[in-house]
Amino acid sequence: MLLSDAEWEALRLSLAIALRSVLFSLPWAILVAWLLTRRRFVGRTVFDAFVHLPLVLPPVVIGYILLVLFGTRGPIGGWLDRQLDIQLVFTRAGAALATAVMSFPMMVRAIRISLETVDRGLEDAARTLGAGPLDRFLSITLPLMTPGILAGAVTAFSAGLGEFGAVITFVSNIPGETRTLPLALYTALQTPNGDTVAARLAVVSFTLGLSGLLCSELLARAVRRRLGR
Amino acid sequence: MLNVELHKRRGDFTLDVEVRAPTPGLVALFGRSGCGKSTLVNLIAGLVPPDRGMVRLDDEVLYDSTRRINIPAERRRIGYVFQDSRLFPHLNVLGNLRYGEKRALKRGVAAQVQFEELVALLGLGALLGRRTHQLSGGEQQRVALGRALLAQPRLLLLDEPLASLDLARREELLPYLERLRDRRSIPMIYVSHQFEEVLRLATYVVLMNAGAVTAQGDLAAVSRLPELRSIVGPDVMGAVLAGEVRTVDANAALAQVRVGAGELIVPADGLKPGQRLRVQLLARDLIIATEPPRALSVRNVLQGTVVSLVPDEAQTLQVEIDIGGTTVIARVTNHASAQLELRGGLRVWVLVKTVSLRGHVYPLASPQAD
């Protein structure tokens, strides 16, 4: 196609980082959605607000918080570096983490909505048929949540392809390591005569975003049809 | 024996009940909507926690607040057929049927209900591969019934399983329930606010009103109680008698049925000689004569003695008459009673038209069929 090697690289990086971020955050998003929907506990409202913070905070602030926490001298980052030899700053893993944090509320929301539509009566029925709590969740609740989980995952993936502020703040803009599509686009705009590169990258982003949303909708529809709704 | 003593407060509704029902058999929980029937079965199932009380099935204690026993619903082995079938939409019919069975067998429960046998009994063979939303309402309830039974329950709860179905679908499902009752393998609690269903299915009846049990007993006994009349009204009241078919006249489509010491001619409707049945004699359809009647079209004349006269809330009298071995109840106006000088101990003849018995004859399993 018409893309240069560097542009291909940015595209591949974006896809890889978005995928990693989704895979990493999905189980947590399901857990958090379940806690927020099904459990009544002290501090639930505060927890709910906390989960939604990335929606309202400037992404730069998120990136900054991540730097403070996960930097090699930060409380978590230092431990990871020393104990597990994992570095997050300036790496793809860090980019995936920043992306995951940013798309987390979106994912939780989609999953939560689908969990709220799961008929508790079906879980009661499963109970009378001998299914314990974990068994019920895995055999009834989770399958019935799939439309929301898929929608959440695909939307988070599409959004993750374009995460900018938190990524550039936390892991900087390193070609071949953390320079994803939006970062490459930003770089192109800063470069003399970079307009055509920027335009191409914009078209790519646009196409990816649109197909992601379409894909999510089609998947959700197919699952709903399977569930007979 | 099913022993239930439960207390539960929910907002300003209080449920306080005691039920002692023989097992096996079909116990009908009967009462108006909102009297607490569904709450009671949810408490028995363990889906809703009681405030205090006890649930005991034969020798097994499922719940006892004083001994701090509370077996969780998933280990009570109590099957539940809900009003809205609650089939799992992500599984097909087979997956739904196997859901509870798999878990029961994994726990080492002996399979009393065999899959193939049950599928045949409920006529589910052709449906196994279907998705649940492709089923009709009646089919859904049959699958729900099968699913509950395959979980190998010790007790089956049915919460108005026919309520969401139209008349034709009800008729489609009722024979399956009758068959299940007549196999006498599993005790059932059947919630209903349709008296017709109770007459057809129940062996034992628990009447409920405003969170309390107002009366309980065999269907025949309960059918004569004023507590039942206050729920269904006087027009559909009538003593239920146990009977056995003696002869059937296929040409005339009539059957001769022995009830107590007397005999009734009833519409035959597929009855066979030797078949046991129950027949409800509507109180308002019975005519009382103080002399042997002559030259009437009425086929059924039962000789008896007046036991009691009780005024009811509709300005009429409920006259209980011993017809030898059992009693019937006739409803007459005060005026008629005064003119006939009805009183306890009076010898009377009770008349009932065969035609008026249509729809009030409920066959039970014939002894040969067992």
General description of the model:
The complex is a heterodimer of chains A (about 230) and B (about 375). Chain A has one domain: MetI-like (MetI-like fold). Chain A has ten helices and no strands. Chain A has helices spanning about 5-40, 45-55, 60-70, 75-85, 90-115, 120-130, 135-160, 165-170, 180-190, 195-225. With about 375 residues, chain B is of the alpha+beta class. Chain B folds into two domains: about 1-235, 3-Layer(aba) Sandwich (Rossmann fold); about 240-370, RNA polymerase II/Efflux pump adaptor protein, barrel-sandwich hybrid domain (OB fold (Dihydrolipoamide Acetyltransferase, E2P)), CATH 2.40.50. Chain B is about 25% helix and about 35% strand. Chain B starts with a strand and ends in a 7-residue tail after the last strand. The interface of A and B includes residues 124, 126, 127, 132 and 227 of A.
Quickly give the structural class of chain B: alpha+beta
User: What gross morphology of chain B would you assign?
Assistant: globular
Output the CATH class name of chain A.
Answer: Mainly Alpha
Number of domains of chain B: 2
Q: What Rg of chain B, in angstroms, do the CA atoms define?
A: 23 Å
Main β-sheet of chain B: number of strands, strand sense, barrel status?
Answer: 6 strands, mixed
Strand tally of chain B: 21
Cα-based radius of gyration of chain A, to the nearest Å: 20 Å
Round the mean pLDDT of chain A to the nearest integer and report it: 88
